[in-house]
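Both lines are given unchanged directly below:

***
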Amino acid sequence: MSKIVLTGAAGALGGRLRAPLARLADTLVSTDLAESLDGLADNETYVKADVGDAAAMMELIEGADMVVHFGAIPDEAPFEEILHSNFLGAYNVWNAAQKHGTRRIIYASSIHAMGMYPKTVQITTDMPHRPDTFYGLSKCFAEDMASMYWDKYGLEAVCLRIYSASGPVQNARALGSWLSYDDLIQLVEKSVTSPITGFAVIYGVSNNDRSPVDNSKASFLGYRPKDNAEDYAAEILAKTPVADPQDKGQMCHGGPFATVPLGVSGVQFIKKMSEGN
């Protein structure tokens, strides 16, 4: 294809997508709030821009065949901050894509759109939202907007409910929720190259024996995850205390995000837990 726009290109996940996406298009336009990016591909350009700036998104997305939208606050935060980057940012991307005739948006949604469901419930892609934070609520908004723009304008969207994207598995929760970086790249590549997607919601998980989600509807993409968190199970479980069934942080799909007060960083909460504070 001619042009792909990647938002959130300086982020932990967006940064891993730059090289694979550059191989799929004549031009990759990467954007984020960083001043610059190192290691640009020969066909990659970088533009510093705020997804909350409507004019900037309108200019960037002009001529794009697809947008891979990973640009947002990746954590719980005060509502006003989430409103700008996650709610308004998503609207600006969809509005610009529709105005310019972009074919498809691949969106970094999150399990936190469903975070208050108990882990004893295997969640599907067609169950009602049940967000755990303002952050999760922003993902619900963008998914519903994606559905509306598909129904109204035929703008395709693949919403990837990413669970726990990381390197090696770090904790017991990730034995079910892990998404390896290699499987993340495969999932995004398949979302870009699939001939037809319409509006789709897909769970971003690897081929885990303990996966708590039903991802059967991802098969049409050709997504076949290769990694399995069970490879880490013996080591992880040997050092994991018995779970407390009264602790929503252990019993809900959203993990610690199910317990933090609204507006308080879930990432910092997890860090304090890991440090024993």
